[in-house]
Design a protein that fits this description.
The chain has 414 residues and is of the alpha+beta class. It folds into 2 domains: 220 residues, Ribosomal Protein S5, domain 2; 180 residues, GHMP kinase, C-terminal domain (Alpha-Beta Plaits, 2-Layer Sandwich). The chain is 42% helix and 21% strand. It has 14 helices and 12 strands. It is globular and about 60 Å long. The protein binds adenosine-5'-diphosphate and magnesium ion (MG).
């Protein structure tokens, strides 16, 4: 795991240390942190075995930790009033494998199922007799990743807890294994049906680069972005509108994708290319066809974005027009074909583009959440002002605006 520090220390580290001292009366053995993430392009492609291009951001979640000698694990968070403590040996009863863990979800507060779920998933990776010898742990967690803004505070808490447990338990697991454990915790201990993009983006992030992920093979490639050198900022426009995975829209979209793949005789929409779309149009009803067309063209846009960012011509500078067009096309496809945008997200994107953004699109699952805009550094203030004014004029709640910087993955901070 990389320990290089390319950006400034995170305020979450001090927060986690403070909480640890309050909790235990003494200093932690160490502090580990992991970042949130933003997705540059590749939306609703992950569960179709497709491609995504997210990057880790500078906002981090930190876990201060120390071993205990009594086989118990205690987690505390600055978000939660009370720490939660269980015996390590009880984790298997709390989160029975494969059961979606209804029992555990009732027995501990939801937030605690993230770090405890990671501990459970990590223990499942070692032989039972080794798991039986793992010592207990105190973990204190603090975060600067906004929750529910589409920046994956969940992957950040999983990555921070996973890194601390991995180090203090001496498991020596690699970043991909820790990402898988985070996803397992989220799917089975928390019960949120998410893909693995967030965890991979958090665990494999590098400064000034994006993580090109093949969601089928889990192969990754670090793609240099060069935004800072080109004078560009990524502006996040958080609409504040909350989305929920459990509401119908997300499940319906997934069902359309599954029907599309079945009708076309492939394992997943990843296996469909733009050239197959005329045949898809004949086989599918118009709504399913549009859902399929989004996924198929979005996969192609990710590949085109990677090609644009890695082309030999990069020596002549960033191909801003190509990048901008791909972002705008992604948004149009999510809005018109996948139909997961909302008026707030469309307003954010249209206003940013009208005020000089190179490109903009909604990011995350949709039905709320945030948009990103790629903006020349000198225009960030003007674009932000214009977005605020447009939201106010339409009677939308005030958006939350801030920039994110492509940053490094997990590290030991102290
Ligand atoms: P996001 O888009 O931010 O990942 P999720 O719903 O996937 O939204 O995850 C948010 C949830 O993760 C929170 O409701 C909480 O349960 C948990 N979580 C995230 N960060 C923390 C933290 N620092 N402390 C405790 N729980 C956290
Ligand atoms: Mg999440």
């Amino acid at each position: 795991m990389t320990a290089t520090r390319t950006d400034s220390p995170s305020s979450a580290v001090a927060g986690a240390e403070d909480l640890f001292r309050t909790l235990t009366g003494s200093a932690p053995a160490g502090v580990w942190s992991a970042p949130g993430r933003a997705n540059l392009i590749g939306e609703h492609t992950d569960y179709n075995d497709g491609f995504v291009l997210p990057f880790a951001i500078q906002h981090r979640t930190a876990a201060a930790a120390r071993l205990r000698t009594d086989g118990r694990i205690r987690v505390a968070s600055t978000f939660a009033p009370e720490p939660v403590e269980v015996a390590l040996a009880d984790l298997e009863t709390l989160f029975p494998a494969g059961s979606r863990a209804a029992r555990g979800r009732d027995a501990v507060p939801e937030w605690a199922a993230y770090p405890l779920g990671v501990a459970w998933a990590l223990r499942a990776l070692v032989p039972a007799w080794v798991a039986g010898t793992l010592p207990g742990m105190d973990l204190a967690i603090a975060s600067e990743v906004p929750v529910g803004a589409g920046l994956s505070s969940s992957a950040a808490i999983e990555g921070a807890a996973g890194s601390a447990l991995n180090a203090l338990w001496g498991l020596d697991l690699d970043a991909v294994t820790l990402a898988r454990a985070g996803r397992r915790a989220e799917n089975e201990a928390v019960g949120a049906p998410t893909g693995i993009m967030d965890q991979m983006a958090s665990m494999l992030g590098q400064a000034d680069a994006a993580v090109f992920l093949d969601c089928r093979s889990l192969e990754t490639r670090s793609i240099p972005l060069g935004f800072a050198e080109a004078g560009l900022e990524v502006l996040v426009i958080d609409t504040g509108v909350k989305h929920a995975h459990s509401t119908g829209g997300y499940g319906e979209r997934r069902a359309s994708c599954e029907r599309g793949a079945a009708a076309l005789g492939v394992a997943a929409l990843r296996d469909v290319t733009p050239a197959d779309l005329p045949r898809a149009a004949e086989l599918l009803d118009p709504v399913d066809f549009r859902r399929v067309r989004h996924v198929v063209t979005e996969d192609q846009r990710v590949l085109d974005m990677v090609a644009a960012l890695t082309a030999d011509e990069r020596s002549r500078g960033l191909p801003e027009d190509v990048i901008g067009d791909l972002l705008v096309a992604s948004h149009a496809s999510l809005r018109d074909d996948f139909e997961v945008s909302i008026p707030e997200l469309d307003t954010a994107v249209d206003t940013a583009l009208a005020h000089g953004a190179i490109g903009a699109r909604m990011t995350g699952g949709g039905f709320g959440g945030a948009a990103i805009a790629l903006v020349d550094r000198t225009l960030v203030a003007a674009v932000s002002e214009a977005v605020r004014a447009a939201f106010s004029a339409r009677g939308f709640a005030e958006p939350h605006l801030f920039t994110v910087v492509p940053s490094a993955g997990p590290r030991r901070d102290a």
